[in-house]
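Lay summary. Proteins are chains of building blocks that fold into shapes, and those shapes determine what they do. In this project we predict the shape from the chain. Here is one chain we studied, written as its sequence of building blocks.
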Amino acid sequence: MEKKPFLTLEKAKEIAEIYPTPWHIYDEKAIADNAIALNKAFGWNKGFKEYFAVKATPNPTILKLLKKHGCGVDCSSYTELMLAEKCGFRGEEIMFSSNETPENEFVYARKLGAIINLDDFTHIEFLEKCAGLPDKICLRYNPGGDFKINNAVMGSPAEAKYGLTPAQFREAIKILMKKGVKRFGIHSFLASNTTGNAYYPELARILFGLVADLSEETGAVFDFVNLSGGIGIAYRPDQENPEIEEIAKGVERAYNEVLAAKGYAHIKIFTELGRYMLAPYGALVTKAVHFKHTFREYVGVDACAANLMRPAIYGAYHHISVLGKEEKKSDYVYDVVGSLCENNDKFAVNRALPQIEIGDYLFIHDTGAHGFAMGYNYNGKLRSAEILLKSDGSFELIRRAETPEDYFATLDIYEEFRS
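And here is the predicted shape, written in a compact code that computers can read:
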């Protein structure tokens, strides 16, 4: 699969005249089209709703764009709940999925009327004491062991810190029913960044079976099944992207065979897709500013791991295009590096690229999710601007770049740092 930038060199230069690089940029039309396609694929389920994972791209413009297309939000912290509220999300448009949750976060989630997704058996008593139990509640399920598809291990739930064991899940349903909870949801996340089409259908079949069994065993009324995230994207050109239509058809088959066949066709399907919804439709644009010729050939750029952590902490691959040189041969080999005082501050290692010159703009693909969001201020680095490339070809600043004043803001306890 060929990876093409959604930004031209001419447009990058136009933007850079106003907003110096580096910056993250997002493709408005592609984001909207993807949300429409997801809703269409799962249109067979009348209650379907995508709860976009705020942690992936916590920007108000992005959240409001997704809201226009029927998406809710998945929040995991107090400030994400604040962001959701400020963007106009209310009540059951918000899913609150957190772990080791402080009291004030449960209180705030209850105030907003969010659907609360409990991560641990002990949180039942904790939530009841600090905020009271709602009429409807969700529980996160962890089956333990390894999660396999066609005998291939996709994830190891037993090693994850999330969710209730099967025995705890059953006991929790019974306890919550005694305490007056009337309706339930189930949530589970067993694998990350899957690019095949089998993950959601396999997960769905597991959860649908559990819901049917518990409904018959306990009389509990399940309102929804939340398949969470896990659908990935093709970061590498030689990978294939998942096919959402095929995935949705696989989930539908499991739904009809396991739930509808037993009289549970009212149950809604929810998803919490961050990476799939946004990653391919965002990029980090940075400029070549230095060369270094030592044991390797280095291209130094004006971005660093503070702008995109994934390569540094995961060794994650992000494809790189040199704007204006997309058709040129990749016959030079570089390490593309930033300026942090850390040797892992590398966007690419031994990467074949066209010959790069000082001033060239590099388009680092697939940063629309977990890109800007994971930024930090190590080495006193300031986080970049975020820009929306609009459907009509214009562009809009949707987050300004940080300034030194922002960096020193929490030091206003000292007189010399007060403005």
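What the prediction tells us: Residues 199-218 form the longest helix (20 residues).
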